[in-house]
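Worked example 3. Consider a protein that binds adenosine-5'-diphosphate.
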Amino acid sequence: MSTERTPSDPAPLLDIQNLRIGFKTPFGMTQAVRGVNLRMGRERIAVVGESGSGKSVSFRALLGLLPGSSTVEADRLELQGENLLAMSPRQMRKTRGGRIGMVVQDPKQGLDPAKTIGAQITEMLRLHGKCKTREAKARVQELLADVHIRDPRRVAESYPHQLSGGMAQRAMLAMILSAEPDLLIADEATSALDAVVRHRILDLIDEQVRLRGMGLVLISHDLDLVGGYADRILVMYAGRVMEELEGSRLSQAQHPYTQGLLACRPSIDHPGGELPVLQRDPKWLQ
Ligand SMILES: Nc1ncnc2c1ncn2[C@@H]1O[C@H](COP(=O)(O)OP(=O)(O)O)[C@@H](O)[C@H]1O
Ligand SMILES: [Mg+2]
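Given these inputs, the predicted complex is written out as structure tokens:
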């Protein structure tokens, strides 16, 4: 596939070509991401792979969130045709949280412990110029209702520590949605939650993505969990995309690594059975 665009071919929502990320460590440079490509529109992409495969750093790089010890290079790293690598710190702050929203695993990281939920959403609305001051209170309640919080008034007046994990995750999502982003990145957004709440939050993210016509990148180590929520699945291993699958075709995975990930799932039919250990092939790295 050609990576060149013609004038009649509008810029995709996100265009990542040959993304490479390295870290300086006491032992020298380590290459965490080795040439990732992703061109996506307003669709739902799942990025899966075992821990350490480079999922988080790939997408944190888009937002300029990597530490100073990192180097980020790409042939192209664009949001709607705009070069993310060339943005000034000020432009990047506007893009982050404005055009790209990021849901993280721990709402305590995304929410300020010293401010009520309502105050934080109001601040976000003001920062991104999304409503007039006198309308802010009503808009906060609306946003909290959008994420299916039954008692928006009480939650708006609560501090993050007063909420359950699932409720805090909803409140963080409401805050992110208040900026009306074009792209939502959810990085292990449900990994700290129990199984039932996990599906409810993913259903909610899915619903909001469809209603608002956003693009979604759903990052998870759990192929089984997120597969059903994605149009396309990228399987990462050691800083590379090993395989790309249609969301509905998970069981037809060709790559032995993906097949291995699927085979290592605990099964309801054989609970307590011994799980196979994923056998890695050095050839995958070539
Ligand atoms: N600050 C850092 N310094 C050095 N190496 C890092 C740093 N952050 C991440 N890495 C390395 O980058 C690789 C990918 O990490 P990450 O993207 O967090 O994996 P995951 O797929 O679990 O999200 C890992 O091997 C990790 O050791
Ligand atoms: Mg990660």
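Take a moment to read the result before moving on. Residues 23, 25, 30, 32, 49, 51-57, 67, 69 surround adenosine-5'-diphosphate (ligand 1) (CB under 6 Å). Residues 13-91+230-286 form a domain with the Rossmann fold fold (CATH 3.40.50.300).
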